[in-house]
Design brief:
- The protein has 508 residues and is mostly helical.
- It is 63% helix and 2% strand.
- The chain has helices at 2-22, 41-66, 68-97, 100-113, 118-131, 135-145, 152-165, 169-182, 187-200, 203-215, 221-239, 245-261, 266-278, 282-295, 299-306, 314-325, 332-344, 348-355, 365-377, 381-393, 414-427, 433-436, and strands at 27-32, 35-40.
- A two-stranded antiparallel sheet has the order 1-2.
Amino acid sequence: MIRAGLLLLLVVAAAVTILAVTGDAGRASVVWLGWRADTTAAAAVLITLIAALLAQALWRLLMWVVEAPDRAARARADTRRRQANEVLTRGFLAAAAGDGSEARRLAQKAADLADEAPGLARVLAAQAAEAAGDAQAAHAAYSAMLGFPEMRLAGHRGLMTLAAAQGDREGALRHAEQAFALARTARWAWRALLEARLEAGDWDGALELVQGALDRKIVSPIVAERARSALLAASAARLEHAVEPKGRALALDQAVAAAKLQPGFAPGVVMAARLLAADGKTQRAAQVIEAAWKAQPHPALWLAYRDLRTDETPRGRADRLRDLAALNPAERESRILFVEQALIGGDPAGAEEAAKALEGEPVTARIAGLRARVAFAAGRPDEARMWMAHGVAAPQEPDWTDLDPEGRAFAYQPSDWARLVSAFAETGELVHPRHERRERTMSDLPELPAPYMERAPFLEGAPVEPVLYPVAEDAFGDDEPPPAAPPRTPPRRPSSRRRLASAPRAAK
């Protein structure tokens, strides 16, 4: 309207300017119903434009009057929409804050106002019932959502949560399965199904879920790869001691596949190496461990590598372990292995030199035991006993706790494997169930044949001759004779066969 008026004014101004420049005002005559009007051309143009503006203004006024009812209805709808949005916002905030009574009051008000968003009102009603602790009302609200295609996924999730809270695991699993079938990207449903499979020890079913999640792009390829590696290792652990040759062959294939997918996953690598060695494929087992050592060293790896061959001299075994440590020399486990291989090869000087790289490491029970062995090999039993004393109170290393007292690596229960699969898939890091449960492990501290030497300064005994102090003659009275001096006993010499009673046997 304003733009049209401005345009007309510009036209009038242009016409008047043209007439003024030419100097010819012109003539205009209008004859209508017997009436005749004579005027100048400029006046006729102005009259025409003014008449057009008045006609347009009258027309807009008439339309404004005609559209007044619709305009009022739209204003009421906008006001109602704003009120509904405000009520929904406050209701969801109250439900999130756990104020069940306020959330239910606002949910009832939203049901009357939110005509254009009934889905949000239903969701608020369900969450308000949950916040108020009314499980029956929440179940009814979520069940009502199943009747609307766009709300079925939310309904199944709410019902799954309620069933899980009430201990109905089968009902929760059923709703998760239905939701996973409805939506290709329902990660929460996939996660619930995966946890159920892991808890039941259904490794094959969990593998299918992981592959399906990868196809649906629910998880990233790296997460799927880590999950598959851990699941294959868990399945191989179950089949490792199978009676049927087919089961053992399947365990070997799965363990090798797990090691290939994730060389840094020590449980799968150790299992693959053990099964390959049992199958007579020692060289391939060594290659698997070497690849894993390059990726992520673990004490169970070099112990498995050490035991691959039993027909070699200590020097040959030490050389082989030194080559393994040289594959990743900067890692802590490699620096420890350099010390171990020197001790195995009977090289005390080399062990002392390698142990210098561990001086900045925190003193754990394992480090203390290693330093004690180095000191004893170098002919310093007193220092060895000092390290043994440190090791008794020192903390354990989580990786070392993966070895049980018999030296078996990753001898886990199905529940431990389930937790390991979940944690490794998400973070790529190992968990240590035995460390968390504070279970006994393979000994950290060796049993050293360290006798109590006479030359040990802190073991030297008291003087052989007793010291006699002068006593007054009448100290014991006139009638009582002084007590006889105690008989002299020869000094006891420490036995050279005595050992530390608390030192456990060294791991071989």
